[in-house]
Amino acid sequence: MDITALVNLCISVLKDIRVITAAILTIFFISLGNYVVRYRKRPPKPKKKKSAPKTAAAPTPKPEEQPKQE
């Protein structure tokens, strides 16, 4: 087998649809595997506790001073 026959054989193998499909699928699954391994989920943010809605604080009236009884 001379060099030209070897080059023609390599080109015909690389042009085959089965080889191209296998190469693309292999690259896809390796990339998907790397993504899954490296994926880190962000830690959940702590939820704020819901408290009763605060109403506008009206000034509380001062208790009336009662005269001292003696």
Give structural notes.
The structure is a single chain. With 70 residues, the chain is mainly α. The longest helix is centred in the middle third of the chain and has 22 residues, at 17-38. It has 2 helices and no strands.
Q: Strand share of the residues?
A: under 5%
Main beta sheet, described?
none
The helical percent reads 40-55%
The coarse silhouette is rod-shaped
Topology:
Blueprint: H1 3-15, H2 17-38
Give a quick precis of the structure.
By secondary structure, this protein is mainly alpha-helical.
Labels describing this entry:
70 residues, mainly alpha
